[in-house]
């Protein structure tokens, strides 16, 4: 039997740890997004061969190049800072599953216009600055209901699927993590105010995904624990 690659065994190990973390929570589906930024196509294909389909990228140029070179049934997640002048490239990617980093009503409205030609509405998450640090992007927790309302009421080519946070690195060892509690609070507020249910929570990375799953995350974004450390600091 061929030896299993390190990437495949890492993926399996992370999936097992997600399942174990679910014992500390109400059972719910958790999607593992393999964050492949700065990593070569060969690494992505290695994970793909084991059946993995959800991959996350941070840079639009890199995402656009990878989309063109890799299988069309990959379900891409955009998880990087969104510049307004790059929204058009985002809207043109047919197999884009989720844009996780919408951080203003203005960008949602601009992206909505650009998505008019898509076969199906584009799924988005609102990024929330749960730690309210000046340096972090994301919507302030007390403004997120208003932005969600704008998306739901005025953006027919977008679908609000949920919320995302990165959180403070200083909180990543805390259990429970206060950033994740804040995101859950935002979700309840939006669901209550707009009559929605089942919004997703994208929270948890290599250092804190188990805590995030135990706190109800439905979408964890794991990079270095699958593909190894990145050279660039990002
Ligand atoms: C890079 C990145 C990740 C993955 O981080 P790791 O610590 O390598 O798991 C997750 N989410 C976002 C938004 C990122 O930029």
What ligands does this structure carry?
A: pyridoxal-5'-phosphate
Gap between N and C termini, in Å?
37 Å
The overall pLDDT, averaged over residues, is 96
Question: Order of strands across the widest beta sheet?
Answer: 7-6-5-4-3-2-1-8
Our estimate of the beta-strand percent is 15-25%
Helix tally?
9
Instruction: Count the E strands.
Output: 8
Task: Explain what this protein looks like in three dimensions.
This protein has an 8-stranded parallel β-sheet with strand order 7-6-5-4-3-2-1-8. The protein is an alpha/beta fold and 234 residues long. It is built from 9 helices and 8 strands. It has helices at 6-22, 41-49, 60-69, 87-91, 105-114, 144-154, 178-194, 209-214, 224-227, and strands at residues 31-35, 54-57, 75-78, 96-102, 122-127, 158-164, 200-202, 219-222. The structure holds pyridoxal-5'-phosphate. Residues 35, 37, 58, 79, 166, 205-207, 221-225, 234 line the site of pyridoxal-5'-phosphate.
């Amino acid at each position: 039997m061929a030896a299993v690659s390190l990437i495949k065994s890492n993926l399996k190990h992370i999936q097992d740890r997600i399942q174990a973390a679910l014992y500390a929570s109400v059972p719910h589906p958790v999607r593992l997004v393999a964050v492949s930024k700065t990593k070569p196509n060969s690494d992505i294909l290695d994970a793909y061969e084991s059946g993995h389909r959800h991959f996350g990228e941070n840079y639009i140029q890199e995402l656009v190049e990878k989309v063109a070179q890799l299988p069309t049934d990959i379900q891409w997640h955009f998880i990087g800072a969104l510049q307004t002048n790059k929204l058009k490239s985002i809207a043109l990617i047919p197999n884009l599953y989720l844009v996780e980093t919408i951080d203003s009503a203005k960008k949602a409205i601009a992206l909505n216009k650009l998505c008019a030609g898509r076969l199906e509405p584009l799924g988005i998450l609102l990024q929330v600055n749960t730690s309210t640090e000046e340096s972090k992007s994301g919507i302030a927790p007390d403004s997120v209901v208003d932005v969600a309302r704008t998306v739901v009421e005025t953006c027919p080519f977008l679908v609000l699927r949920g919320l995302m946070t990165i959180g403070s690195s200083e909180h990543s060892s805390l259990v429970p993590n206060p950033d994740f509690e804040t995101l859950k609070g935002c979700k309840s507020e939006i669901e209550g105010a707009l009559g929605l249910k089942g919004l997703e929570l994208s929270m948890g990375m290599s250092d804190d995904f188990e805590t995030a799953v135990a706190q109800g995350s439905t979408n964890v974004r794991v990079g270095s624990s699958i593909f190894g450390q990145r050279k660039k600091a990002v």
